[in-house]
Structures are given as structure tokens and as C-alpha cells.
Write a structure and sequence with these properties.
One of its GO terms (molecular function) is DNA binding. The structure is a single chain. The protein is of the alpha+beta class and 283 residues long. The protein has two domains: 84 residues, 434 Repressor (Amino-terminal Domain) (Orthogonal Bundle), CATH 1.10.260.40; 179 residues, Beta-Lactamase. It has twelve helices and six strands. Strands 3-4-5-1-2-6 form a six-stranded antiparallel β-sheet, with helices on both faces. The protein is globular and about 55 Å long.
Amino acid sequence: MANTGLGTALRHWRDRVSPQAAGLPAGSRRRAAGLRREELAQLAGISADYVIRLEQGRATSPSAQVVEALARALRLTHDERTHLFRLAGLAPPGPGTVPRHITPGVHRMLDRLAGTPVAVFDAAWNQLLANPLYTALMGEWHGSDLNGVRRNFLSPDSRVRDTPGSRDALQAALVADLRRTAGRYPEDRDLRALITDLRRLSTRFAELWDSGAVGHHESARKTIDHPDVGTLTLDCDVLSVAGSDLRLMVYTAEPGSEEADRLALLDVLGTQSLGVEEHPRRS
């Protein structure tokens, strides 16, 4: 049976999000102020054909991951996101699962920090959203590498310059932080699967996990070797969003410094020669 309620809601929410609000160019000859289906698909990381089938009621069982991505792309409130899950025939994530909802306020914050590299992570260090300058600075990740803990242990190729000591300290802090998250969200199956995989695939992770340390990942000063603009030493601050356990990772340079000039250059080059999408991307 066609799920017309889901399709009607998606069309309504799509129509109220302007391309400018989503970080997209408005273009010309638009028949409506809202997002096109192709633009919603791009923001949510799914195919335009699938968006069409959802709106027409021909796709009736979207996964929880797709619903979550649509909620982020449409900038839904908490109540609207809950309603979207129910329209899709899914139970909204419960209090025992890691929150992955990005509030409209956090979206607006990223809009206002367009000239600053910013990414949003959940409490399990899954990258949910990154603005174009963050992607240009740190590179673009896909699939399981969007999880920062997995990437640090299993995909060590990074633009951040590490010493053995700084890498060991970062890994210890990430494991301790992940253990704290696991205690807060014991019902999260994805989190349990992540920990199981990392213990199986990384001896270093397993040793740190078995040590029983609990803590949190803190801010630091990082040196980044960028292939196009050279070396940048930046302050990396991790800010917590009250009530949601989201983390904002923000990179900043000292005003007037050489790093500030290189970051400004990257802001110009980022969406041109570096192949970065011209909108905040889902992670």
C-alpha cells in the first residue's frame, strides 16, 4: 500500500527549505522557493529516484539511516523528526541510543560559520555533517571511515601530523571517550557493533578498551599538512551541544597569521579546484 502520508510530509518539508538555507546556490528559473528533489537527494546522500519513489508512495520502507539523513537534510525539529520516523513505520530512536538529530539551531550555527572549518559528530564520533571548508581542510571521508575512532585505528592515513606520543594520547582519549558513551547509551546496536569490530580488528584498541579507562576527547592544537595550501597549525576545539551529546569540531587560526591567510586561500579554492561539494555534506 502506498505510504502517501510519508510522501505528503516530505513534499511539505522540502518546499519550506530554501536552497540558501541549505547552503546551495539558488540558481534561476525556480518554480518554487524550496528544495528540488535532486537537491534533497544530494543533501541526504541518497538517489533522486529514491526521493521520487518515497514522495509518490512507491517506496514504503526506508531504513532508519535514510530517515535520519532526510531529517537532517530537511532541518526538522525533534518533534518533526519523531513524526517522520513514525510515518516511515519505524520506532523513533529511544533514550538508550546515541542521539544523531541535528537541531535547526546547530544548522544555523554552521551557516554563520561558513568561513570556519566545522564538523558535527555524535557521541560515538560519527561525522554527521561538515561544512565545505572542513571537508577541504581535512579531506572527504566515506562509509565506515566517517567514524573518527574507526578511522584513527584502522585508516591511519591522515593530513594531521602526529608524533608517536601524540597519536597514542589521541587514541587513548578516543577509547576512553567511547567507553563513556557506551555507558550512557547501552541500547545502541550500532555502537556495540563498532566496539566489537574495533576490538576484533585492532590490537591497540582492544588493549586500551580492556584497560577500563573512562574519559573524554579534549581540544588540542593540530598541525595539518595540506596538499594544496601547505602546512597549517590550527586550534582544534571540541564543543558540546547541551542536551544532545553532539560535538562540534572547530578549527581556527590566529588572526593575521600565515595560517589565517592559508585558511582564507583554502576557503576560496575549496569549492573550485579541490572538488568539494558546495553544501554541507551528510556524514
